[in-house]
């Protein structure tokens, strides 16, 4: 953000609204959705908290801080780099600064932590599902537990690397992930859970009627975001020039 603000590499013309197509607009929507698609991690965090009832306060605090940071960063970069900002944005600061910022992020473990958190959550879900209700859940053994954990991690991280290399443009990959998973984990399944838990009380009071409408709306939003998101991400991937997959080329 500082580098882009100092160099001002792009057209600094700021437009509050622009005329664009549904395809381009929805690609931007999926990018925003990705930033708030951390719902699969909630259950793990809640289960490991000393006081699980503090989770709503914790979540509100995190969302307030993250929304503020996202807003400030987005405004500064858009004001400085214009609408042609690269994705990821560190590419807008020039090749040298992109390397410097990337090196700092690696040395301070920011990039590693951001990736490891998501990978760890996926590994833990699979691991717990495999060994739930068995004595292995509470006993460390070299071959059954540690070996299984290493195998799960190896499969997931290898799969992630293959997908990331096959879809080399960062924005398009985020859009695909959001459409397949964020649409349901952050919206659709939330509505399904509430409707299932309260299935006998949908119309029992004005409050329940309102919540029923809200959760049916969430379910519809999940389906809409998934369908439209898959269309725009698939179109974006198909329109990208060939040759960027499995290469070290700069795709920003």
Automatic annotation (TrEMBL):
GO cellular component, as recorded = membrane
| Family label | Belongs to the amino acid/polyamine transporter 2 family.
UniProt GO molecular function: L-amino acid transmembrane transporter activity
Q: How does it sit in the membrane?
A: Multi-pass membrane protein
Chief localization: membrane
Keywords tagged on the record: Membrane, Transmembrane, Transmembrane helix
Q: Where are the transmembrane segments?
A: 25-46, 100-121, 142-164, 176-197, 209-232
Q: Residue limits of the Amino acid transporter transmembrane domain?
A: 15-232
- Which top-level group of life is the source organism from? Eukaryota
Question: Where is this gene product found?
Answer: Membrane
Q: Pfam families attached here?
A: Aa_trans (PF01490)
Q: What is this protein called?
A: Amino acid transporter transmembrane domain-containing protein
Q: Which PANTHER family match?
A: AMINO ACID TRANSPORTER (PTHR22950), AMINO ACID TRANSPORTER (EUROFUNG) (PTHR22950:SF668)
């Amino acid at each position: 953000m500082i580098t882009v603000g100092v160099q001002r590499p792009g057209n600094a013309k700021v437009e509050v609204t622009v005329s664009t197509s549904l395809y381009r607009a929805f690609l931007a929507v999926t990018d925003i959705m990705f930033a708030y698609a951390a719902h699969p991690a909630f259950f793990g965090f809640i289960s490991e908290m000393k006081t699980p009832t503090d989770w709503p306060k914790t979540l509100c605090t995190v969302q307030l801080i993250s929304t503020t940071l996202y807003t400030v960063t987005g405004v500064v970069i858009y004001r400085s780099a214009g609408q042609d900002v690269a994705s990821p944005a560190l590419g807008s600061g020039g090749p040298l600064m992109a390397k410097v910022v990337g090196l700092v992020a690696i040395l301070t473990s920011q990039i590693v932590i951001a990736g490891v958190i998501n990978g760890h959550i996926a590994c833990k879900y699979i691991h717990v599902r495999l060994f739930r209700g068995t004595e292995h859940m509470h006993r460390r053994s070299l071959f059954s537990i540690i070996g299984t954990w290493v195998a799960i991690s190896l499969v997931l991280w290898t799969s992630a690397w293959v997908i990331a290399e096959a879809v080399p443009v960062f924005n398009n990959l985020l859009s695909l992930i959001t459409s397949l998973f964020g649409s349901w984990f952050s919206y659709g399944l939330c509505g399904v859970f509430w409707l299932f838990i309260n299935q006998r009380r949908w119309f029992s009071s004005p409050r329940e009627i309102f919540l029923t409408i809200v959760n049916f709306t969430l379910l519809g939003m999940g389906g809409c975001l998934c369908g439209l998101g898959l269309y725009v991400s698939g179109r974006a991937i198909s329109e990208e020039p060939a040759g960027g997959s499995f290469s070290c080329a700069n795709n920003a």
